[in-house]
Amino acid sequence: MKKKISLLLCTLTVVFALAGCSGKDSGVEYDQATIEEATEFLISYCSTADDTTIEQWNSLSDEQLDIQMAQSGYPFTGDSFLSSMDAWQAGVDECGAYEGHGDFTYDASQTQLSVTTTAQFADREANLEVIYKADVRGNLHLDSLTVSGIYSMGEVLSKAGLNTLLGMGTVFCVLIIICVIISLLKYIPKLQEAFSRKNTAAPAPEISTAQASEAPAQSAPDQPAPETQAEAEDVTDDSELAAVIAAAIAASEEVPADGFIVRSIRRRKSNKWI
């Protein structure tokens, strides 16, 4: 019985020892006083910096920022310091003017240290989280600052309802537009048919310059028809034709040809002889 009890005690001792070792090695090493001082300075500076000060910091070069951070003595970098000020300004726009904060809570992991607290702003409270990351040598440097507003259940539900309404409204608007477009598709064949009719219509005849110069009289409105010209044509001088006609008439009437005189010859409109 004594052996069993002693074996149990030895087992518990080993377990607690391993747990203690694992807990010690699980987080990065840090000086709480140094980290607290750096965090207090960061919050204080961000809460008092105005737009002009932030603009001056943004106008500095990377080398100048690194020099300023090194002279401050805090574990800050230029990029992380500027991003922290921007995040603070966004939190002020969301939660109102800064009023104060509570005690810090430290949570260390193998690669970073998280410092959190609850801050009071004019409109609502917010959770402040400052993260320090460890480099290759194990030294901590500022990585980011986050200001998260604390909303009540009613505010959360109202925001969720508004987001849902906006999302569904956008979807329904898009669906209505699609329905309108689909309803207009029935007019496409008619438009195509109208355009095809215009394209297949016979073009007007083109008259070249040579044709226009050869027949100018045809376009003139006062030019008489060819038949009228034939009727008005004078054929009294055609003696041979008159002699033939006179001989034909004399033969048919059985009278001498000297008894007929042809005064004029006119062409009938019809080609048939009566």
Please provide a written account of the structure.
- The chain has 274 residues and is α+β, with helices and mostly antiparallel strands.
- Among the domains are: 22-149, Nuclear Transport Factor 2, Chain: A (Roll); 155-180; 232-267, no CATH class.
- Helices cover 56% and strands 14% of the residues.
- The chain has helices at residues 2-25, 32-48, 51-59, 62-72, 78-95, 153-183, 188-200, 209-214, 216-219, 226-231, 239-253; strands at residues 98-101, 105-108, 112-121, 125-134, 140-149.
- Strands 1, 2, 3, 4 and 5 form a five-stranded antiparallel β-sheet that branches.
Features:
alpha+beta, 274 residues, rod-shaped
How is the secondary structure organized here?
Layout: H1 2-25, H2 32-48, H3 51-59, H4 62-72, H5 78-95, E1 98-101, E2 105-108, E3 112-121, E4 125-134, E5 140-149, H6 153-183, H7 188-200, H8 209-214, H9 216-219, H10 226-231, H11 239-253
Antiparallel strand pairs: 1-3, 2-3, 3-4, 4-5
| Portion in beta strands | 5-15%
The low-confidence parts are 20-25, 216-221, 228-233
Can you name the CATH architecture of the domain at 22-149?
A: Roll
Number of E-state strands: 5
The coarse overall form would be rod-shaped
CATH level 3 topology of the domain at 22-149: Nuclear Transport Factor 2, Chain: A
Look at the helices and sheets and give the structural class. alpha+beta
Using the CA coordinates, give the radius of gyration.
56 Å
Name of the CATH class of the domain at 22-149: Alpha Beta
User: How would you state the average pLDDT, rounded?
Assistant: 79
Terminal-residue CA separation: 162 Å
